[in-house]
Each structure stands twice: as structure tokens, then as C-alpha cells.
Design brief:
Blueprint: H1 3-17, H2 30-46, H3 48-58, H4 64-74, H5 78-99
Helix pairs in contact: 1-2, 2-3
């Protein structure tokens, strides 16, 4: 982008930022929209809140059904845990025996 175009875009950006409430800023040219999005991304990376939002956006989606299933398992009586632990250990031992 040439310097004059960049200055022109920066001036247009300033006009949009300083537009009075209720001004028609929804009818932007594609270049203006791209510039606003670019400025938004730049400001997000430079602020603590922006960095936090960036980290949050990379977190995996919470699957409610898995959380509920885990809660039900945790709430089970201790005898159920003993049986499940024995079954899990049996599977691990079987895998170890089969690998040899």
C-alpha cells in the first residue's frame, strides 16, 4: 500500500471513530471494513483483555454431556469405584501381557 493511500485510510478511520452517534457508519467500503478489522486485531493483541480473549478462543468446547457423566461417576458409592478400578487394572494388565 502506498503512503498516501495509508494516510487516506488512517484519516478515514479517524473520521469513522469520531462520527457522531447515529451516523451511518454501516455503509463502509470494503477497504474501510478491512482497515477497521485490522485495527481491531492489532488493538486486541496489545491489550491484556485482548490477549485473554485470544487464549479463551483457543480452548476446546465444553461438552456438557461429558461433564454430567463425570459428575455422576464421582457421586457413585465407593463400592462401584472399587469394581471400576479392578476392571481398569485388568484391562491394563491384559494390554501389557498381549504386547510381550
Amino acid at each position: 500500500m502506498q503512503t498516501s493511500n495509508k494516510t487516506e485510510h488512517t484519516n478515514r478511520y479517524e473520521e469513522l471513530l469520531n462520527a457522531p452517534d447515529g451516523a451511518d457508519v454501516f455503509f463502509l467500503e470494503e477497504e474501510d471494513t478491512d482497515m477497521l478489522v485490522e485495527r481491531l486485531f492489532d488493538s486486541m493483541q496489545s491489550s491484556p483483555l485482548g490477549r485473554l480473549l485470544s487464549v479463551i478462543s483457543t480452548l476446546p468446547e465444553v461438552r456438557v454431556e461429558k461433564v454430567e457423566r463425570a459428575r455422576r461417576h464421582i457421586d457413585q458409592p465407593e463400592e462401584c469405584w472399587d469394581v471400576r478400578m479392578d476392571m481398569a487394572l485388568d484391562r491394563v494388565l491384559e494390554e501389557l501381557i498381549i504386547e510381550d
